[in-house]
Specification:
Layout lengths: L8 H9 L4 H12 L4 H25 L2 H22 L3 H9 L4 H15 L3 H18 L5 H23 L1
Helix pairs in contact: 3-4, 3-8, 4-6, 4-7, 4-8, 5-6, 6-7, 7-8
């Protein structure tokens, strides 16, 4: 179950002005304050990935390619972060130091995880999700049929992540 948190707009805007991701910032702050291990954070990320995947499916069903693209991307983004945290790879450590995940760090993390886990589909899932993010969401150039093509790989990645995070 995902819960919402209310913040004063001025704080939210200050965080966004600095280019930080509010969800990551809150999760890392809580993780540190509560002395949680990265495995617990990975499980929390998987919860978000499941939520985004469910929303992506709903938007596909409604024929909304823009929102389906973004939700599919967010599902994969959370999976990359979850696995990076679980396996404590260098990209995760860099994201914690900088206070945010940059797109290049996510791409590098997908490649590091792919090599570490011997699973080339991780890079494929990331690449397709990023493509949907750019051309389906930001540019609005993909119709729903283009999003549907990528959904099986994205669904596979969420399930794959679930198996690894559960260990």
């Amino acid at each position: 179950m995902v819960v919402s948190l209310e913040l004063p707009r001025v704080i939210y805007e200050k965080v966004r002005e600095r280019g930080l991701d509010i969800e990551d910032l809150v999760m890392y702050a809580l993780m540190n304050a509560m002395q949680l291990d990265p495995g617990e954070l990975a499980r929390a990320r998987l919860e978000l990935a499941d939520k985004y995947l469910s929303e992506a499916r709903e938007y596909v069903g409604k024929g909304d390619a823009v929102q389906a693209s973004e939700k599919a991307y967010k599902a994969v983004e959370e999976c990359v972060k979850a696995l990076a945290e679980k396996f404590n790879i260098p990209e995760y450590q860099e994201a914690v130091r900088s206070g945010r995940w940059f797109a290049y760090l996510l791409g590098r993390a997908a490649r590091t995880l792919s090599g570490k886990l011997g699973e080339s589909r991780i890079v494929d899932a990331w690449s397709r999700a990023y493509d949907l993010h750019m051309w389906g969401f930001h540019e609005g150039k993909y119709g729903i049929d283009y999003v549907k093509v990528d959904m099986p790989l994205i669904e596979w990645f969420v399930n794959y992540t679930r198996q690894l995070v559960a260990r």
